[in-house]
Amino acid sequence: MKISLAQLNYHIGNFEKITEKIIHTLNIAKAQGTDLVVFAELCICGYPARDFLEFQEFIDECGQAAQQVAQACAGIACIIGIPTPNHTPEGKDLHNSAYFIADGQVQAVVNKALLPNYDVFDEYRYFEPEIEFQCIDYKGIRIALTICEDLWNTIENPLYVTRPMDKLIEQQPDVMINIAASPFTYNHDEERIAILSENAKRYQLPLFYVNHVGAQTEIIFDGGSMVFGADGELVDELPYFTEAVTCYEFNKGETIKPLQPVTLQAQRQSDIEQIHNGLILGIQDYFRKSGFSKAILGLSGGIDSAVVCALAAAALGPENVMAVLLPSHYSTGHSVKDAEDLVNNLGCKSELIAIKSITEAFETALHPQFEGLPFNIAEENIQSRSRAVLLMAMCNKFGYILLNTSNKSEVAVGYGTLYGDMCGGISVIGDVYKTQVFELARYINREREIIPQNTIIKPPSAELRPDQKDTDSLPEYEVLDPMLKQYLEHRKSSKEIIAQGYDETTVRRVIKLVNNAEHKRYQTPPILRVSPKAFGMGRRMPIVGRYLS
Amino acid sequence: MKISLAQLNYHIGNFEKITEKIIHTLNIAKAQGTDLVVFAELCICGYPARDFLEFQEFIDECGQAAQQVAQACAGIACIIGIPTPNHTPEGKDLHNSAYFIADGQVQAVVNKALLPNYDVFDEYRYFEPEIEFQCIDYKGIRIALTICEDLWNTIENPLYVTRPMDKLIEQQPDVMINIAASPFTYNHDEERIAILSENAKRYQLPLFYVNHVGAQTEIIFDGGSMVFGADGELVDELPYFTEAVTCYEFNKGETIKPLQPVTLQAQRQSDIEQIHNGLILGIQDYFRKSGFSKAILGLSGGIDSAVVCALAAAALGPENVMAVLLPSHYSTGHSVKDAEDLVNNLGCKSELIAIKSITEAFETALHPQFEGLPFNIAEENIQSRSRAVLLMAMCNKFGYILLNTSNKSEVAVGYGTLYGDMCGGISVIGDVYKTQVFELARYINREREIIPQNTIIKPPSAELRPDQKDTDSLPEYEVLDPMLKQYLEHRKSSKEIIAQGYDETTVRRVIKLVNNAEHKRYQTPPILRVSPKAFGMGRRMPIVGRYLS
Questions:
Q1: B-chain residues within 8 Å CB-CB of A364?
Q2: How high is the pLDDT of residue A264?
Q3: Which of B124, B199, B296, B438 could bridge to B400 as Cys pair (CB 3.0-4.6 Å)?
């Protein structure tokens, strides 16, 4: 039997395009003699469709799209993911299902049993978990079909009380197929390989695994669909961050034969290379899927906006990127020079708008209220917010989308101005720590200098008052970032972090800064997610609450 | 047996204050001869603690607080809500539990079985559902103790496959006790009474029900704890929007005797009265629990900011409310007059800052880019954003919290400027439709004119260009609001809404406006929730997606 894996990029809710893409893939596969094409979890509507799933009209559209796909299945079979009505009165109204389609009809329906409901996942919000399991027979092959998380319950402290494959294995299947929507984080590829390989070994069955590729607002799917032999050996690993369709000859008791050169990586991509490629896909899909093409950003001469500008130019083409230099009287001379060098290196567009007259107008207007009071954060923020007003005016006039350039370290400690530099349609590096931003800059410069060396080596500064440096109020990023990681990603208490050897005063001050910034983060743009714990939907903290540290 | 109900207001994560409050209540009750005091669901840490629950330190603090409460339980028993570790390796790491405490020790632990995971609820994110049920015996009385949602599975299309009371009733309990965290919406009180009464009747048992009171950022708990006889008759209903502790004599086979005058309402509060009281509590708790006392807002002369100003003055005292008049050259003369009249009626503080010189500075700075292009939304938004910069500068200088004054109708259709009038620490009326804002204004004026009549009767306008009216681009609010309700709260498709008799072109345009504003709403402040479907955590839509209508 010839099995194809279709690793595709779907636009949530765009039934016309999705159906067209699935049927197009089926037609090509059929011409090549494929027996079965496997598409990803909930591919019929895209993932995550969130509360679209609460609209009956949306569910009906899914059903109609599946009917169209079924009609295209003459002489070929396919597996698609689809939300389906739960026909029993008890429980949630939907299942997260897979259709096995052949001969123009849905031959079998498999429902997901283990529903991820942590971090960015909310599946129990919509779906009733399945409790009964049945293999599918097709052309003499017995298939154990599961959906994503159904295979992930292998760890020591499992999240769920059941394990679907333990039931399915009793029916003596010949092969496992798993359809998934497993998002990218920079350490997720190896984890995925380990879990899937462990499943193949545990059940002594070959395994075909199909993932999504493409970004859905902040969530990036990296692809990396895979095939394993019954011994747990990786037979093939599809490319990352791009669509791919591959085909394999599989017969009972034989080893799997790839029908094209396999794309097995000689060595794994480094974390930074993955983040780089993920962010570019994230920018591309945000623009493409929302119907925009042109980005704007404020270019300060610092490293954050430089890296975002370079990523945007790579994602959208430099001709679609407008960099605006917005110096104030506190901007140093080299800032404008560094920004201009970057613009020249990238070949993107630029404008220069000085903000002095604007901040002066604000200060004059506020003179009756502020008279006699010292310069403080109020005036600092007026600079940052004036820039945002200018950038948003450019957006409103010319149809740009503003890219936010805040990094994860500053978003964490609240080192940013709400309605100022925290503005934007999408945050590009809000899940990238400052130390990683430097790594990204060096990676971007791997072949030639794109980001000016001076931008990389000068001490980071917000330039909102004379001679300001980030380290005036924050520890060095080499100290700050690992501390933040312990708190944010590993949920360690300050006591535990101090016990790891960090300075007590610094730890308490940093964690307090993080806690005090929850109200700011609530109003930030969606942040492209590259780590296991990004700010946004995956981290839900009370705003008004008393924090422990 | 004397049973007390403690309907209290908790500050999430403030273990010191919560423990103190619980022990104080226990001591008073003990002095009055009470046998058992019932506190609300998860009272030990406040509700919803969200991802605080993922910190082991937080769970440990809960346990320590419970130990302190237990030590205070000499000669008195109590029921408290607490997150507890799940001691089996499989499943989520926590349970949503109730401790039955007597003689200084935890005598029994009951875990919640039905975990709400819809709208604003995320309980399956943290908790493993219970599958075994056991009554508690105390002083010869057998108690069927359940937690909130456990009693809510009575409807025709139940959300869950089990019903805990069906198991507990087999053990022949004498009474039901339910501890809850049931948030306010303006139609929830009657629904709650109906469901609880139905439970009492179905199981022919008296029922004691204790709810939270107080606001947790956007979620308002209204209290309204209740006692029912075994016939389903309401014996007592505690007050709404305020703390209360009441006591009842309950003996097997006898009717329940309230030990204080009952507070049974002669008639239910109207929706608008409930919304009014809920919003005041919402403002109060937002400030009190975040350690702020002074609010600021922009006062336009229109009805939205007038109503918010009046609510804030009622919540915080007029001396703590700063109203800033920010006229532009498009503001009409009566706007300033109407705003000043309101300030005088309320006795709050005010400032007037004209924005003309600021918007001119922006337009001058942007002249090279905008030259020759017509005035459009870019210039309109500069006005709105300049006001936001001024208001935020006042916040930064003087420690105010900015109140957002957008109403639900305009938040829905995106009739607001991101980083402009959509700014604020908390949105007061973002879940109140414009037609309800008018009702609120009339309610606020029920005894004397507080909101100037002219503010109520003039046609709504954003005043961002000459002679602008809301109805230039939107249908009349009497048409718009019910249409929005169908789409937002009842998840009807445009086809279904049109079938209800609304004009097709208008419906399609309005729903398109709603869909196109998702990216704006993602960045709005938390919105005090008064309806069954508020914008915010309870409504999770894709930003980049293709919408149906």
A1: 357
A2: 67
A3: B296
d(CA B361, CA B358): 5
Cβ within 8 Å, pair B378-A397: yes
Phi-psi group of A202: left, alpha or beta (phi > 0 → left; psi -120 to 50 → alpha; rest → beta): alpha
Nearest CA in chain B to A55: B491
Angle value at C-alpha A381, between A376 and A382, nearest 5 degrees: 100
State the average pLDDT over residues A48-75.
97
Give Cα separations from B451 to B340, B409, B429, B464 (angstroms): 11, 20, 16, 23
- Which residues partner with A176 through β-bridges? A144, A207
Picking from B507, B546, B548, B549 by the largest number of A CB atoms within 10 A of its own CB, the best residue to mutate is B546
B434 is a catalytic site residue:
no
Surface-to-core class of residue B104, CB atoms within 10 Å of its CB (0-12 exposed, 13-18 middle, 19+ buried): middle
The chain B residue lying nearest A131, using CA atoms, is B161
Q: Three-state SS string across B429-441, please?
A: CCCCCHHHHHHHH
**In contact, B544 and B226? CB cutoff 8 Å:** no
| Buried b / exposed e along B122-142 (16+ C-beta atoms within 10 A) | bbbbbbbbbeebebbebeebe
pLDDT digits 0-9 by tens, B98-148: 999 999 999 999 999 999 999 999 999 999 999 999 999 999 999 999 999
Q: Token digits for A284?
A: 């591309």
Interface pTM, i.e. ipTM: 0.96
The model carries a pTM of 0.97
List chain A residues with CB under 8 Å of B547.
Answer: 13, 52
Instruction: Give 10-residue mean pLDDT values along chain B (549 residues).
Output: 98 98 98 97 98 97 98 97 95 97 98 97 98 97 97 82 95 98 93 95 97 98 97 95 97 93 77 97 98 97 97 98 92 87 98 97 98 96 98 98 98 97 98 98 97 93 84 91 97 96 96 96 98 97 89
- From the list B89, B361, B496, the residue facing A158 with the nearest CB is B89
Query: B105, B388, B135: which is closest to A386 by C-alpha?
Result: B388
Between positions 86 and 145 of B, the ones with CB within 8 A of A are 89-93, 117-118, 122, 124-125, 128
Length of chain A: 549
Euclidean distance between CA atoms A22 and A416, whole angstroms: 44
Let me know: does B252 contact B3? Beta carbons within 8 Å. no
A257-269 per-residue burial string, b: 16 or more CB within 10 A, e: under 16:
eeeeeeeeeeeeb
Could you tell me which chain B residue has the CA closest to the CA of A492?
A: B55
Residues sharing a CB contact under 8 Å with residue A164, sequence separation 6 or more, in sequence order: A113, A114, A130, A133, A146, A150, A151
Catalytic hit among A21, A41, A130, A135: A41
Spatial separation of the C-alpha atoms in residues A93 and B47, rounded to whole Å: 27
Burial of B41 (0-12, 13-18, 19+ CB in 10 A): buried
Which chain A residues contact residue B537 at CB under 8 A?
A: 540
Q: Does residue B533 have an active-site annotation? A: no
Round the average pLDDT of chain A to a whole number and report it.
95
- Edge-to-edge strands, sheet with B295-298: B349-352, B321-325, B295-298, B401-404, B426-427
Three-class DSSP category at B378: helix
**B92 is known as an active-site residue:** no
Chain B within 8 Å of A20 (Cβ-Cβ)? no
Q: Annotated catalytic residue: which of B2, B21, B30, B112?
A: B112
Query: What is the C-alpha to C-alpha distance for residues B55 and A420, in angstroms, rounded to an integer?
Result: 32
Of residues A58, A361, A396, nearest to B357 (C-beta):
A361
Which A residues, 246 through 275, put their C-beta within 8 Å of a C-beta on chain B? Answer: none
Nearest-angstrom CA–CA distance, A506 and A496: 14
Contact A274, A183 (CB under 8 A): no
